[in-house]
Amino acid sequence: MKWHRIQALLIRHLYLYRRSFPRIMDIVYWPVMELLVWGFLSLYIEKMNAGFNAITVLLGAVIFWDFLNQSQKSVSIAFLEEIWEKNLINIFVTPLRLSEFFVSTLLVGLVRLILVGIILAVLSFVMYHFNLFSLGFALIPFVLNLFLFGWALGLFANAIILRFGTSAQILAWGFLVMVQPFSAVFYPVSALPSFLQPIAYLLPSTYVFEGMRSVFMTGTFSTAHLFGALIANAVYLVVMIWFFFRMFAYVKKEGKLLKLEG
User: Fold this and answer.
1) CB atoms < 10 A from the CB of 20, how many?
2) Tens digit of pLDDT for each residue in 38-74?
3) What is the value of pTM for the model shown?
């Protein structure tokens, strides 16, 4: 793995953001709109239910969900942009390795996550007096686990796009919607029907959101939730990386890589 090749891809994608207003809006517009909607809803709920700290519970969940969303989209969109611009073949006829491509997309996602995090943290504090950093040390491992899970989901979406073509690219935007109801984003796992709760605990995101609520509501950091997220993420990453490599090898063997750009 060579750093200069990773750096070249990273710079390429960052230049795309620098010169593209729609790409900048994707980082700023949707997260801010979600924050405003859920922030005003939280204020309304607090007025209707005195004593219930809706701002802390709901805004924390919205910001964490945006972290996961940005992580998954950064991987999927970086891959799709190479297809849209008919640049996939140009990249992989070079000495670039798949692992180097993975790392570059991971770094792009990290940049997006930092930018979104700063914007949402500042805006939520100014408008709703919500301090994201009140999580303390727990903020780092929770965000890291969401980032890794989003990366794994992005790899899965890319593998499906490789196998079935660009007709499956809707997964780049819609796949997280399928995960959200089971991730206990805005409610505890106990609110789910009993037969769905085991499914929820198969997702790293569930442990993160449950752990986040534990810190906000009781002030205690749950190591059980942290280790649950880490173990689940390790499994997902191994499986998704293997799956993507297998789909890439299949596409190369069948000669479908060129058709992907058609």
Assistant:
1) 11
2) 788 777 777 776 555 667 778 888 888 888 888 888 8
3) 0.85
Main-chain phi, psi angles of 2, to 5 degrees? -110, 130
Residue type, 79: F
The CA distance from 192 to 182, in Å, is 8
Structural domain count of the chain: 1
Amino acid at site 125: F
Quote the domain boundaries for residue 95. 3-261
Looking at per-residue pLDDT, the higher value among 110 and 171 belongs to: 110
What is the C-alpha separation between 226 and 148, in angstroms, rounded? 13
Task: State the angle between helix axes of 98-128 and 21-48 in degrees (0 to 180), rounded to the nearest 10.
Answer: 40
Query: What's the Cα-to-Cα distance from 244 to each of 10, 99, 198, 220, 238, rounded to whole Å?
Result: 20, 11, 26, 38, 10
Instruction: Return the pLDDT at 169.
Output: 75
- Kindly state the tokens that stand for 160: 């499906």
CA angle 244, 105, 167 (to 5 degrees): 55
Estimate to the nearest angstrom the gap between the alpha carbon of 2 and the chain centroid: 26
User: In this prediction, what percent of the chain has a pLDDT beyond 70?
Assistant: 95
Report how far residue 120's alpha carbon sits from residue 261's, in angstroms, rounded to the nearest whole number.
Answer: 36
Residue 112 predicted with pLDDT over 90: no
